[in-house]
Amino acid sequence: MIKWIIILLIIAAAASLLGMPALAGAAATGARILIGIVLIIFLLVMLGVFAVA
Predict the structure, then answer these.
(1) 53 domain-assigned
(2) Which distant-in-sequence residues (6+ apart) come within 8 Å of 30 by Cβ?
(3) Which of 20, 25, 43, 49 could share a disulfide with 15, CB 3.0–4.6 Å?
(4) How confident is the model at residue 1 (pLDDT cuts 50, 70, 90)?
(5) Does residue 53 have a pLDDT over 70?
(6) How many CB atoms are located within 10 Å of the residue 36 CB?
(7) pLDDT score for 51
(8) Position 35 in a domain
(9) What pLDDT, in 10s, does the model give residues 16-36?
């Protein structure tokens, strides 16, 4: 999932430099959503680890 976030951020940066704000915004929004999902999963895993220990 981290690979997809990096790919979307690179696409957003390239589209921004090439003057395509709609594509850059869409790629940045996709990366932002994936980052949120990763953080939620990370927090759930950490809470699970602390609940077991």
Answers:
(1) no
(2) 8
(3) 20
(4) confident
(5) no
(6) 10
(7) 79
(8) yes
(9) 999 999 999 999 999 999 999
**Tokens linked to 46:** 């950490």
Amino acid letter, residue 20: M
Query: Is there a domain that residue 52 lies in?
Result: no
Domain that holds residue 11: 1-47
Instruction: Look up residue 44 and give its amino acid.
Output: L
Residue at token pair 């790919």: 7
pTM of the model: 0.81
Residue with tokens 């680890």: 49
How is residue 37 written in tokens?
Answer: 């999902």
Q: Rounded distance, CA 28 to CA 36, Å?
A: 12
For residues 42 and 22, give the distance between their C-alpha atoms in angstroms, rounded to a whole number: 30
Tokens 């990096």 identify what position? 6
